[in-house]
Amino acid sequence: MLGTWASPVYRETALIVLSFIFISGLIVYFLRKKNYYFVVSWASIKSWLVVAPILFGLLGLPEPWPLICLTVIAIFGAKVFFQLMGMFHRSYFVVICYFGILALGYSVMMNRMDVYNLLPMIVLGICCLVPLFRNNYKRMIQYISLTNLAFVFLGWSFMHLGLIMKFDKGIYQLMYLVILTEFCDNTNLAISRYIGRYKLFDRIDYKRTLEGTAVSALLTVGVAFAMRHLLPDGSEKYWLVSGLIASIGGFIGDMLMTVVRRDAGIKVVGHFILGRGDFLHRMDRLIFVAPMYYYAMMYLPEIHL
C-alpha cells in the first residue's frame, strides 16, 4: 500500500529536492527586497514549496493513483487552455477534449498503445460532427482546430508521462524529467536576466537569450549526470540524451505556449498556487519533452555507441 514511498531511493530523492527548494527559498526570501528579479524568484519558489511535497506524495502512491494524478493534471491544463482561448463556454468541445484525455489515461492503464495513438483521430472525427449536430457553421473551424491543439499537446503529448511510468523505474524517470525541465527553465531565466545580450526570439519572448539558453542547457546536462541514478541505466548515452531533451524540448514547448498566449493577447490565466505564471507554465515544457523522451528511451537500447 505504500507504493514508491517504500523505496529508500524515492525518499532520499524527495528529501534532497525538497531540501534544495527550502534552502533556495530561504536565501531568496532574505534577498527578495534587493531587486525585481529576487521578487520573481521568490514567487516561483513559493509555489514549489507548496506543490513539490504534494507532487512527491501523489507520485509515491501505489498504482493507479500516479496515473490518475497525471490525467487530472492534463484535464486541468486543458481547462486553463480553453479559458485562455475564450472557449470555455463552448462546452461540447471542452467535454470532447476531457473525455479524450480520460480515454488516454485508460488506454495507458490497460497498455493499449493502439488505442492511445488512434485517439487524436477519434477526437478530431467527433469534433467534426459538432457543426452538424449544432446545425451551425460559425467559427467552427477555429473551435475544432483549438480543441485538437489542446488535446494533442495537453492530452496526447503530456500523457506520454503516463507511458514513461510504465518503464522500469518509471516513477523515478518521471521525477527525473520534471526536475530537469524545471531546473532548466529557472536557470535560463536567471542567467538571461544577468548576462544575456542576444535575444533569440525577441518578438515572442524578450526574456530568453542565447547565452541563458546555452548555459542553462549545459547546466541541465550536468544535473542529468548528477542524478543519473534515477535512470535504470546510468550509462552516458541515457543521461546525456535526457539532459538534451529536457533542455531543447522544454525550450520549444515553452516558446510554443508563449506564442499561443501572445496571439490570444493573454499572459496569465489565474495563478499557479502562489507564484509566477499559471498552471500551463508548469506543463508547457513537458508537452514536447514527454514524447521525445519516451521514444528516445524506446530506441536508445538499439544504438551502440
Question: What structural keywords apply?
Answer:
single chain, 305 residues, mainly alpha, two-stranded antiparallel sheet, 2 strands
Description:
The structure is a single chain. With 305 residues, the chain is mainly alpha-helical. The chain has two domains: 1-62 and 168-305, no CATH class; 63-166. 73% of the residues lie in helices and 3% in strands. It has a two-stranded antiparallel sheet. Helix 1 packs antiparallel against helix 2 and helix 8 crosses helix 10. The chain starts with 7 loop residues before the first helix and ends in a 6-residue tail after the last helix. The model has no long low-confidence stretch (mean pLDDT 86).
Which runs of at least 5 residues are low in confidence (pLDDT < 50)? Answer: none
Principal-axes geometry comes out as globular
Find the structural class using helix and strand composition.
mainly alpha
State the distance separating the first and last CA atoms.
41 Å
Number of strands: 2
Strand content: under 5%
Instruction: Give the % helix.
Output: over 70%
Mean pLDDT: 86
Secondary-structure element string = HHHHHHHHEEHHHH
Radius of gyration: 20 Å
Structural domain tally: 2
Largest sheet: 2 strands, antiparallel
- Please state how the strands of the largest beta sheet are arranged side by side: 1-2
Question: What's the arrangement of secondary structure elements?
Answer:
Elements: H1 8-31, H2 36-59, H3 65-84, H4 91-109, H5 113-134, H6 140-157, H7 160-164, H8 170-194, E1 199-201, E2 205-209, H9 210-226, H10 236-264, H11 279-283, H12 286-299
Helix pairs in contact: 1-2, 3-4, 3-6, 4-5, 4-6, 5-6, 8-9, 8-10, 9-10, 10-12
